[in-house]
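Quick one, probably user error.
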């Protein structure tokens, strides 16, 4: 065997190294939003962004994202020296005692503990085993034996030694010789047959199902703050420099551990963000989410929320639904930048110039809010709201419509250059060939036989169009040109029967209701660059300028409203019935029946046809919400009213025939009607309802609490969304479907793809894990987004040094020789006056601390009760034992005697080697005797030299004395002789 393999260098795999493997790995997850399919910027960024802006738009479509798992690994690279903490300098032969105790303590303890335990243990165990054992074993034996052995051994050993003690010279030697030889021959043969066959079958089936559940929750907060400061410094250390000629410094360094920290993304998971509507907090929602809201509120507001009891009843006034009055002065929206504007009973709509997205004006917040753009394949150029549908034209002239959720192309893929929609929902379009058409009930377009540039719908079967600056009005089945021709290029109609026109030079014209001639409105005089004019249901006029800005004007001031108030009495019963009279413009009168008395506001007289709608309240019926629509009567009145009760929904006015979203919603929070208040306003011979409110009896909660929740509704809505139970979320998601961006597959239900447990909340988005429909889909998605690509960040490695508590001491010897040459004229024999190098003892120093550790330990929870019962072991198979027997070693006997012959040869070799070993031992004994004799002779020579040395050195007692004499002798004359003595003594030559 190669000796280098047994005693070579240390294998590299046994040497400790650093940096090969991380000593600590930290993983954390980040949820990122990667894409909002089809989204467009809410507004054009032209200046600084105001972070204090309150009316920020909501996300209106799902967004895709992912969960990125990032791994940070710490690999130790080694240690190095840090700051120099202390240095101690010692002169040659200096000894000092120094006790250094630097004690400083600053303690601040803050403990916060929140313990929540939830155990759910479910186990299902299936044990199925089927064993079929078949063993066949055959052993065949044939024996024949022949043995022959021959051995020859020779051993010769000799040894000798010689030792001579002459000037330290000695010698010794030994030698030996050994030889042996051996020869052995063995032949054996054995025949025979042994056969074993066994078969065993074992079938065992066992099934165990266990379920254990234990849920415990405890919240505990321990906050204790202690500040302690102690400082002691005592010198009690003994340090000695035993060097005679060099100074020494002892330097103390802090030990620094060096790490390589690598951060890289390791795993990606798909997630989907669902937009949610922010909550309006009222008494009902406070009852449902009270604890959730209090848990995320500031401490003072949390106490107020918990103190509010929505189950205590009290009478309060529900804010009235007041029709907005147009401002008395013009309002310019210079940040809107529209390319088109239109109005109907649904409201005022527009198209943004820079991205072609649809917007709608909110009369309550007085701002433009974006509409959903789901389904749009491009930008819009024109828009026309109707009765319950919004129609529009794309930049590609494709006709599309919005059903309240998604934009859809016209089934017959009509293209047009202009469009208008009447109050009855009839759509008129100007085709690509300038032909005017009307959409029929079956979706087809009927050609009206005229050429037009633009079209407007004033009323039922009252249509205007313009062509080459000339305007025409349809009356019955014919067309009549209206003169003079004012070079009109753009037409639009108001809900009050007025017709608006804009000339080629940007001036506004109007045809009042019932008139046939164009006039210039005084309230638009001096306004340059008008592109279009419309009038809304609130009685105000809108002008779109060529700059993209929007101007809002009030046409006339309405009369002062007449208020009324019927408060609830202490013993007032709840209302039993409500009656509402209305005409085509708004609500004329309201009557509420209470047991014992009836109150009515408004009138049923005047011109126009009125309709009556009634609703009977059930016993204990509670008002949940009030929705109101606004009309054009009296320049702003209630046109429709909807009361949502616990027993059902009551619609009045135009709310009975439309599904338009309300302009204003006031939540009553689950209370019963016991009175009403509001105001009426006159419009000629008619009286309309301008505002309406109710006295209700319900939960008693301070209004300041509700105002705080609604002022911060985004924060509290996120808390409610994040704490929603999975059952509620799964039921809601099951009603919606989603198609991934760029996919041609059919939409799939979100309830089957999304994990109903939220993972993130941002803005009005709530994120969920988005599962895959197939494994192939998962692989394709993961392959397209490798964790290591630059999209999500390449691995980054940084070197970080961390100071440890260790201290490294290094002794540094001085480079300068501190000793002088020995001179007989100086005091040099230190033994005559030894230096006291042992310092005096110092008193013991106590370093005890007076610090007290704060106790921030919370009581532990008891042992879990959710346990599984150990499963019973299944029996082992017992067959095949006989078959294993024939595999036993030495199945057949040794007939040749080979083992015996091997033993004889081994003994012979050992005997020959033994003689050689004995000879070597005798030679070693002789060498030992010679060496001992040599050592004794050397000792005698040293002693003799010691006796002769004093005579030679002139009596110098040590090497220092001898050096001094040599130094003194070296101060003689240049010829090597010393100066003669003063008494004429003889000269001695060295």
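Nope, works fine. Designed sequence:
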């Amino acid at each position: 065997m190669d000796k280098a393999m047994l005693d070579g260098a240390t294998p590299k795999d046994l040497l400790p190294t650093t940096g090969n493997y991380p000593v600590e790995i930290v993983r954390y997850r980040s949820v990122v939003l990667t894409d909002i399919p089809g989204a467009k910027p809410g507004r054009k960024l032209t200046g600084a962004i105001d972070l204090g802006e309150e009316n920020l738009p909501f996300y209106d479509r799902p967004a895709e994202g992912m969960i990125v798992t990032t791994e940070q690994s710490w690999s130790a690279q080694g240690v190095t020296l840090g700051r120099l903490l202390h240095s101690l300098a010692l002169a040659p032969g200096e000894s000092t005692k120094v006790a250094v105790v630097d004690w400083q303590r600053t303690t601040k303890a803050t403990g916060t503990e929140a313990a929540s335990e939830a155990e759910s243990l479910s186990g299902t165990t299936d044990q199925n085993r089927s064993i079929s054992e078949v063993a066949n074993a055959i052993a065949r034996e044939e024996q024949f034996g022949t043995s022959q052995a021959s051995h020859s051994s020779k051993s010769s050993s000799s040894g000798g030694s010689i030792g001579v003690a002459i000037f330290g010279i000695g010698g010794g030697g030994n030698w030996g010789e050994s030889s042996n030889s051996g020869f052995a021959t063995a032949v054996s043969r054995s025949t025979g047959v042994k056969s074993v066959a066994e078969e065993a079958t074992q079938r065992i089936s066992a099934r165990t199902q266990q379920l254990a559940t234990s849920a415990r929750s405890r919240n505990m907060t321990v906050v204790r703050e202690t500040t302690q400061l102690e400082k002691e410094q005592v010198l009690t250390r003994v340090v000695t420099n035993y060097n005679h000629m060099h100074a020494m410094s002892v330097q103390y360094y802090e030990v620094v551990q060096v790490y390589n920290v690598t951060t890289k993304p390791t795993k990606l998971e798909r997630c989907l963000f669902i937009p949610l509507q922010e909550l309006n907090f009222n008494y009902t929602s406070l009852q449902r989410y009270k604890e959730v809201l209090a848990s995320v509120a500031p401490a003072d507001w949390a106490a107020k929320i918990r103190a509010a009891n929505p189950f205590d009843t009290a009478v309060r006034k529900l804010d009235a639904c007041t029709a907005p009055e147009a401002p008395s002065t013009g309002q310019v929206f210079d940040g809107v930048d529209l390319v088109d504007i239109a109005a109907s009973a649904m409201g005022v709509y527009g198209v943004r110039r820079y991205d072609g997205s649809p917007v709608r004006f909110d009369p309550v917040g007085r701002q433009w809010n974006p509409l959903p753009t789901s389904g749009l394949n491009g930008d819009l150029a024109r828009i026309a709201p109707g009765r319950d549908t919004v129609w529009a034209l794309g930049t590609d002239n494709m006709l599309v419509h919005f059903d309240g959720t998604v934009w859809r192309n016209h089934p017959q893929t009509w293209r047009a250059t202009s469009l208008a929609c009447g109050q009855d929902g009839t759509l008129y379009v100007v085709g690509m060939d300038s032909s005017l058409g009307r959409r029929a009930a079956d979706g087809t377009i009927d050609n009206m036989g005229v050429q037009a540039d633009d079209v407007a719908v004033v009323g039922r079967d009252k249509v205007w169009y313009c062509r080459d600056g000339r305007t025409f009005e349809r009356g019955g089945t014919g067309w009549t040109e209206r003169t003079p021709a004012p070079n009109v290029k753009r037409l639009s109609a108001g809900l009050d029967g007025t017709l608006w026109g804009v000339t080629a030079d940007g001036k506004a014209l109007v045809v009042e209701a019932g008139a046939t001639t164009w006039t210039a409105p005084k309230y638009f005089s001096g306004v340059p660059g008008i592109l279009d004019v419309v009038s809304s249901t609130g009685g105000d006029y809108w002008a779109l300028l060529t700059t993209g800005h929007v101007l809002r004007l009030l046409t006339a001031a309405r009369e002062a409203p007449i208020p009324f108030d019927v408060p609830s009495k202490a013993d007032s019963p709840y209302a039993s019935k409500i009656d509402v009279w209305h005409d085509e413009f708004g609500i004329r009168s309201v009557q509420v029946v209470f047991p014992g008395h009836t109150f009515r506001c408004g009138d049923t007289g005047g011109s126009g046809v009125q309709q009556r709608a009634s609703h009977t309240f059930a016993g204990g019926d509670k008002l949940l919400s009030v929705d109101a629509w606004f009309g054009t009567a009296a320049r702003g009145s209630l046109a429709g009213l909807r009361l949502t009760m616990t027993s059902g929904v009551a619609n009045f006015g135009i709310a009975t025939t439309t599904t338009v979203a309300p302009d204003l919603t006031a939540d009553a929070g689950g209370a019963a009607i016991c009175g009403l208040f509001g105001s009426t306003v006159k419009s000629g011979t008619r009286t309309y309802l301008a505002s309406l409110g109710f006295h209700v009896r319900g939960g008693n909660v301070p209004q300041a609490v509700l105002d705080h929740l609604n002022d911060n509704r985004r924060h509290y809505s996120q808390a409610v969304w994040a704490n929603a139970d999975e059952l509620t979320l799964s039921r809601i998601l099951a009603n919606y479907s989603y198609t991934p961006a760029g996919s041609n597959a059919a939409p799939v239900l979100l309830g089957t793809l999304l994990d109903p447990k939220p993972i993130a909340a941002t803005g009005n988005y709530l994120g969920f894990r988005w599962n895959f429909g197939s494994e192939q889909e998962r692989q394709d998605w993961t392959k397209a987004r490798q964790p290591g690509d630059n999209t999500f960040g390449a691995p980054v490695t940084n070197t970080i040094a961390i100071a440890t508590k260790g201290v490294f001491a290094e002794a540094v010897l001085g480079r300068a020789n501190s000793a002088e040459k020995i001179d007989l004229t100086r005091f040099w024999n230190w033994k005559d006056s030894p230096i006291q190098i042992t310092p005096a003892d110092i008193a013991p120093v106590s370093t005890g601390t007076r610090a007290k550790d704060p106790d921030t330990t919370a009581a532990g929870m008891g042992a879990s009760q959710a346990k599984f019962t150990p499963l019973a072991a299944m029996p082992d198979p017992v067959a095949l034992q006989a078959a294993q027997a024939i595999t036993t070693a030495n199945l057949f006997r040794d007939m040749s005697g080979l083992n015996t012959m091997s033993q004889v040869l081994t003994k012979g070799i050992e005997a020959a080697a033994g003689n050689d070993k004995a000879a070597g031992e005798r030679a070693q004994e002789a060498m030992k005797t010679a060496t001992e004799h040599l050592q004794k002779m050397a000792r005698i020579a040293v002693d003799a030299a010691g006796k002769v040395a004093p005579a030679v050195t002139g009596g110098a007692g040590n090497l220092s004395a001898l050096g001094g004499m040599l130094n003194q002798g070296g101060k003689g004359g240049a010829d090597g002789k010393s100066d003669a003595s003063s008494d004429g003594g003889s000269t001695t030559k060295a």
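Residues 385 and 391 are 6 Å apart (CA to CA).
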